[in-house]
Design brief:
The protein has 50 residues and is an all-alpha fold. Helix content is 84%, strand content 0%.
C-alpha cells in the first residue's frame, strides 16, 4: 500500500473520530482534517494520471 493511500485512510479515520466527538461536520478541526484529506486525494489522482 502506498504512502498517499495510507495517509488518506488515516485522515479519513481522524475525520470520523472528530465528527463523532464534536457532533458536527462544520467544526473547525473537522474542516481542517477534511481539507487535508482533499489534498491527499488530489495527490493520488495526480499520480494516477501521470
Amino acid at each position: 500500500m502506498n504512502t498517499t493511500r495510507m495517509e488518506s485512510q488515516k485522515a479519513k479515520a481522524s475525520i470520523e473520530r472528530s465528527v463523532e466527538k464534536k457532533g458536527s461536520f462544520s467544526d473547525k478541526e473537522v474542516v481542517q482534517l477534511s481539507q487535508r484529506l482533499d489534498r491527499y486525494i488530489l495527490m493520488a489522482q495526480s499520480l494516477l494520471l501521470n
